[in-house]
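Form 7-S
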Amino acid sequence: MFNGSRKYSLLPSSPSSSRASSSSSSSSSSLPVAPRRSPRALQRHSSLLSQYSSLLESYTEGEIRQLISALVERYSQAMNSGGHELPLFPRAGSRRKRARARHKPCALKELEVSVSELGLGYESDETVLFRYCSGTCEAAVRSYDLSLKSMRSRRRIKKEKVRARPCCRPLAYDDDVSFLDAYNRYYTVNELSAKECGCV
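Output:
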């Protein structure tokens, strides 16, 4: 595709431009001189071109077609949704927001749901306040977690299902929840909503 052998000259090569430069040097007029790109910038540009050309040469023709079709599809989706630019790469701000969202500390959250949505097999339109634990526990990593991770990476622990990092889980549960189902039967469910969360 690209051979990466394009050369860049630092000085203009046309005779008219060389005459203009010689006349400007001989005359004392103060015409503005266009800024020239430094050789270092040219070398950087040339190395980038060679890197991209070698990268594209490593792809097969089918892979390049898939890449182009994915870019075209993404561009058409952006245009159809009212966007004015090609969203190939996420902005730095959105990356920071996602990083902050990934590292929110373990905390108690709540959600109002119907009893049927709890997935416990009860049919009822009554709503309950479901409290749950959400967040990360990076700050609560202990020596146990680090050692367990090391043993897993060395394949000293192979078959057991172990978790090598603390998890945001309920430390205590709220009071029991009572409700009537769709057939007017009375039920009580214990340990349904979290009361306190922590890294365990």
